[in-house]
Specification:
Number of helices: 10
Order of helices and strands: HHHHHHHHHH
Helix content: over 70%
Strand content: under 5%
Radius of gyration: 19 Å
């Protein structure tokens, strides 16, 4: 972690976004924090490479789910290796239910939900979601989440006197979940506002 660069960020975020348990909070905030004092790194490129890695990992889950199908995926989740990856039948059922409730947009919103983020690509693959919208929504959701984590690393650099990436990752992990839920609330409010605004416009047109 003391030698983070763009390629290691991409690799770690690919792992984080797949079914292998690895928290993004220990990668992006420390990399962003390091970029503030390292001329060889840029905080904006940290977000870009982190998002690219997230897409790679998400596509791995998506393709495996789409090609292998539900019986194989659930059998793996219930196996010893699946449990080592912190997978379970209950987690997959939860992710599928989340996808059914929110549709294709869940691949965007789900990237902001701690308990769903790594698994939302699996129900998308099982449901046969088209690759184009999947990559688009995943990129938007991952990009937003990584930008938030990078900002967290930025403010840790500006407002604290922490000296190591390990200290930064611990502090970022402490507050990342709360920040994620705040983002979800903002997104939900914004979407609701757009829906209400469109309905008001339709009613006005109907009266005319």
């Amino acid at each position: 972690m003391a030698h983070l660069d763009y390629w290691s960020v991409t690799l770690f975020m690919s792992i984080e976004s797949s079914f292998i348990p690895f928290p993004s909070e220990v990668v992006v905030p420390p990399a962003a924090w390091k970029s503030m004092g390292d001329e060889g790194m840029n905080i904006f490129l940290v977000v870009v490479f982190a998002t690219a890695g997230s897409n790679i990992g998400a596509l791995v889950n998506y393709c495996l789910a789409r090609w292998l199908g539900r019986p194989v995926i659930y059998r793996f989740a219930e196996s010893r290796w699946g449990h080592l990856c912190l997978l379970s039948r209950e987690k997959l059922l939860h992710a599928e239910e989340y996808f059914r409730r929110h549709g294709a947009a869940s691949t965007f919103i789900g990237r902001l939900v701690p308990a769903v983020r790594q698994l939302i690509s699996i129900p998308a693959g099982l449901a046969g979601m088209k690759p184009g919208p999947f990559v688009l929504y995943t990129t938007l959701g991952s990009g937003l989440w990584n930008a938030v984590l990078a900002l967290l690393g930025y403010f840790i650099y500006r407002l604290t006197d922490l000296k190591t990436t390990a200290d930064v990752s611990r502090l970022a992990t402490r507050y990342s979940h709360e920040i994620g839920y705040i983002i979800i609330a903002i997104v939900v409010i914004a979407v609701a506002a757009v829906i209400v605004k469109n309905r008001i416009k339709r009613k006005r047109r109907g009266r005319v």
